[in-house]
Amino acid sequence: MIFITVGTQLPFDRLLKHFAEWRDQRGYSGKVVAQVGEDSRFVHPDMQLFKTLSSDEYYHWFCQAQGIVSHAGMGSILSCLEHGKRGVFMPRQYSLGEHRNDHQLDTVKAFAGQYSSLYFCLDSQALFSALDQVTMEKHEAVVNEKNGDNTLGMNIAKYLKLRGQ
What is the helix (H) or strand (E) element at residue 151, kind and residue range? Predict the structure, then answer.
């Protein structure tokens, strides 16, 4: 099962359309559950769509999923790392009217290549490739990458001046 989440602030129909195109091209027949946002116009007959989810509903679907597909929001990225989930992330882009600025592009640049269980995609081709990887991999547990090198946490703490300089 794949769980798609686009966050709660804005719709992200481009991501949903790219995913649906991949699904239809590849013939993916697994269950797909998506939290699409209040203003989304996306529809797909073979996907279970929710405008919003409570925290309990969100984590119910999140925990059941083989893979997570999401906007490049920090909450989704950190949740994948914390729960040992494979994640596929595409940033919203300001130039396409998907967000107020390009902070998600900056997030992708900062995280790309840092974690073997996370895929960061700037276009549909990269998204399709990442989805192929996530759905073809055996259901082996993802190594909990947060317990190893805590560079991210240390850099955040340093930036916030919570730890050594």
Answer: helix 151-159
Is the distance from CB of 90 to CB of 122 less than 8 angstroms?
yes
Rounded CA gap, 37 and 8, in Å? 6
Backbone angles phi, psi at 86, to 5 degrees: -80, 135
Task: Using CB atoms within 10 Å of the CB of residue 81, give its burial: 0 to 12 exposed, 13 to 18 middle, 19+ buried.
Answer: buried
pLDDT, one tens digit per residue, over 11-46 is: 899 999 999 999 999 999 999 999 999 999 999 999
| Segment 152-165, tens digit of pLDDT | 655 555 555 555 44
Residues 6+ apart with CB under 8 A from 49: 34, 36, 40, 42, 43
Six token digits for residue 86: 């494979």
Sequence-ordered list of residues with C-beta below 8 angstroms from that of 33, at least 6 positions apart, any chain: 1, 2, 3, 4, 47, 48, 50, 61, 65
Do 81 and 146 touch, CB atoms closer than 8 A?
Answer: yes
Q: Collapse the DSSP code of 4 into the 3-class scheme (helix H, G, I; strand E, B; otherwise coil) and give the result.
A: strand
- Please tell me whether residue 86 adopts helix, strand or coil conformation: strand
Helix (H) or strand (E) holding 71: strand 67-71
